[in-house]
Specification:
single chain, 233 residues, mainly alpha, 9 helices, signal, DUF4197 domain-containing protein
Length: 233
């Protein structure tokens, strides 16, 4: 009996080892190396910028898209409610809209930053990312670029605030709120908040395209995408 059990264990371990060997060598078996996989992942991210992020630059690109619409931070939700209660609902509506307008304007100016970020990214373990979840490449991009992109994006948002009049509107809105009796003064850093929300929106839309390419063969519109993403089917 012991000999039989030992034999079964040996066969099981051998089968597992053989299976792992097959998985590890999969790209090479079909002639797709790590560099080619990395190129395919970059192209998928580029398509995310070209097809999806470009939508954010249009009027209502953020405001009309429930996936990325920028809502008020928690601190300002009480401002919004209070202003509506005292008959300043139209001003509150305009305040929310201009936050989204600033993000839309900023993304149009900052899109080349994302393109350069994708070109410069190095996929050290491209095969595992390819065989990961539906947004693995986007997550990889976000983890390795968000800090640097924030530093570049923040002044663009600040400029967009002035361009679309968000700074003036929110200065007026917060001044009126702070002047009301029985309210605590607020002075939120809206540039920081909108910068983070705009970045989140960009990554969200890139992920939409990556997921489509992974799950929809028709979305693989180049030979490279077909060749690379066939490995994860």
């Amino acid at each position: 009996m012991k000999k039989i059990i030992a034999l079964v264990c040996i066969l099981t371990l051998s089968a597992c080892a053989e299976l792992q060997s097959v998985v590890d060598s999969l790209p090479n078996q079909v002639g797709v190396d790590n560099a080619t996989i990395a190129s395919g992942l970059r192209q998928a991210l580029d398509f995310g910028i070209e097809k999806q992020v470009s939508k954010l630059t249009q009027k209502d690109g953020f405001y009309g898209n429930q996936l990325v619409k920028i809502l008020l931070p928690e601190e300002l939700q009480k401002v919004d409610r209070t202003l509506r209660n005292v008959g300043l609902g139209s001003l509150a509506d305009e305040g929310l809209k201009v936050l989204n307008r600033a993000a839309e304007d900023a993304v149009s100016e900052a899109t080349p930053i994302f393109v350069d970020a994708v070109k410069g990214i190095t996929f050290t373990d491209a095969k595992n990312i390819l065989l990961g979840n539906d947004t693995a490449a986007t997550s990889y991009l976000q983890n390795r670029t968000q800090t640097a992109l924030y530093a570049k994006f923040n002044p663009v948002i600040q400029n967009s605030f002035s361009k679309v009049g968000a700074d003036r509107i929110w200065t007026d809105l917060i001044t009126r709120y702070n002047a009301l009796p029985l309210t605590n003064d607020v002075n939120p850093d809206l540039t920081d908040y909108v910068t983070n929300e705009a970045l989140k929106g960009v990554y969200t839309m890139i992920a939409v395209e990556e997921k489509d390419i992974r799950n929809n063969f028709a979305a693989r519109t180049t030979a490279l995408l077909k060749r690379v993403f066939a490995l994860q089917d």
